[in-house]
Fold these 2 entries.
Entry 1:
Amino acid sequence: MIIDGKKTAAELREELKKKVAELRSTHNAVPGLTVILVGEDPASKIYVKNKEKFAKEIGMNSEVIRYPADTEEKVVLNKIKELNEDKKISGILVQLPLPKHIDKKKVIETILPGKDVDGFHPMNVGNLSSGYDSSIPCTPLGCSLLLKKAEKNLSGKHAVVIGRSNLNGKPMTQLLLKENCTVTVTHSKTKDLKAECLRADIIIAAVGIPKLVKGDWVKKDAIVIDVGINKTDSGIVGDVDFDQVSKVAKAITPVPGGVGPMTIACLLSNTVECFKKLN
Ligand code: NAP
């Protein structure tokens, strides 16, 4: 089974469009997402443009605040504080990476946890790991939804997460624990990654190494979710060798067209959730 992220994301956006229309008619208000972009990082500019496009497409209010790369940290922090107070704004996202002179931690901690649609605020990170209600980082949330397409009941499954970043590996681990998986978290110091992967019913690869996971690393009937987006001479590839692994695994996400499209759809979903909680 090839898990179609593009189709799943389109379905989620369609659902959200209906929810937004419903909120408009019942509350005479719609969720509002504000994205702050500092600098000229080319990839960030594309991501932000897409976030704005899809937010508008589902009927949400959406605004991008663009600052030049040399903007002082306090300007960004003051804007966040202003947005925290603004009743029309339900979600605030500061596009990462930030220029070096701006403290990422300070920026994230300034966002009101209830408007933190990225789920990076320590309060949301803590709530997620304590099993309480929280904003969930968009990419792992997307991975969970795709996993559910392949297998409804994940209880008791052995999941191997490759990578332990705050963005992907760690929140993914928490989501899998919530589903009653037994989770092994691996990273660059893991001694025998292939052996770990061979024990997995579920593999989540979030590493940043093109085609790291090979066909002979994967148990027959495993589900493989590939988070990787790696630019190579032959185009964008994932962290999984798709040609090899798709011959062995029960289900796999392609790159592109797998996890990638889910990330923005989940951002919009988080914005709707924040709106509901705030109102
Ligand atoms: P990251 O912050 O660089 O983290 C990479 C993780 O992989 C680290 O925990 C690192 O271990 C581990 N690692 C590195 N080499 C390894 C090896 N040989 N064996 C096992 N683990 C190894 O990366 P990230 O931000 O999580 O992103 C990972 C990938 O996902 C990238 O390709 C990125 O472009 C992609 N991504 C995709 C989306 C999407 O929407 N689909 C969103 C975000 C990111 P240490 O902790 O020991 O260093």
Entry 2:
Amino acid sequence: MPEFKTVRGMRDFLPEETRMMKYIENKARSVAESFGYQEIMTPIVESYELLATKAGEEVRLRMFAFKDLGGRMVALRPEFTPSIARVVATTLKNEPKPLRLFSVGSLYRYDEPQRGRYREFWQSDFELVGSSRPEADAEVLMVTARLMERVGLKDYIFKVGHVGVLRGVLIDEGLNEKAQNAVLQLMDKKQYEDSLVRLKDSGASEKCLTVSRGLIGLRGSNISETVEKMKTCVDGYEKAVAAVEDLKEILKLVVDSGCKITVNVEAGFARGLEYYTGMIFEVYVPQLDVALTGGGRYDKLVELFGGQPTPAVGVANGVDRMMLAMQEQKVTLKGTAEKKVIVISAGDETKSEALRISHLLKDAGITVELEVMGRKMGKALEDADRRKLDYAVIVGKKEFDEGKIVLKDLKRRKQTTVRIEELQETLKS
Ligand code: AMP
């Protein structure tokens, strides 16, 4: 037999990493609850057409796509948003707005595996559907900030832009959507010179080239100053000016809310996914050169899937990358240090009693294992030490007949005899 390995880009998560992934997932779930987001679950396998419709070339070309046995062209979801938009356009179409939806699960992209980039990865996803107002964009930024804070991350920076600014310029220049997307895609890959060449080839004016060049170089952490510069830069392009105003209002709300985040406004920032129509953002930490999170406004997507025109804004947080960042920043997980107990029967005649005692402790909410290897006492205790357990409950015939057991504190190396009815309390204190 060959030695089997995981498929390239796929990973096993051993207990420690699984604990961390679930910790982040649970923090995301509690943040979702605190903002009124309701969790939904959608399939991992969706129709290829749904997923390919608006994914942007980057993601579309990297989908795990195949024909199922019924001959349907399907794919593993590379992101949550199309599934959510599908649900909103169909099953939830008559629900009053806003809808606040939360999902967490695995996604699949045929990316080139490297640190922080896998072919199977996890996201926690928040979507706020039905509002086109800046309050909604601000909320999604604040949800993200709250999550970063709750998992214990530090020094995170929000990179924020607005696709409406550059798109506004290009629309006024008469570029069609395909040409706009091509330019934005090059910018997303930071191929700025190529994007300007593409602009020129599409027939854009000299003024448009100057403005685009200006936007590409324009960034800063002083929000009002950078936004004012953006406004001056796009002067004369009406839609672009409106987009800058929108961005200004969103960021003002975030700052006024008292949410303390570091923001870098980047006028030339584009994101790979084609469906964004407004504010876009990513979150970075200094220890990683890949984004932890990506989000933004997508006002056309629900309509594209046959729903009513429905504005929406959302964010997808990369759970794997948050874990990497937490490891880099040596974040300790809070509230997860539980005492661990092993129940060991001193001989074969007390096996059932040992089982009964382990149930008793589980009923009291204590984490209990049972010795199942038939080890002699010395070996069993040695093994408990090796695995860093806290207590051993030793069930012997003589003590049990007197209603007692022996409790061994493995860390302090102390041993006492405890009455069975007092055992739960003793371990809990
Ligand atoms: P996107 O949908 O591309 O905006 O991605 C949103 C977030 O998902 C990113 O910021 C990452 O944290 C995470 N992510 C995207 N692609 C991958 C990948 N191949 N491996 C790990 N995490 C990813």
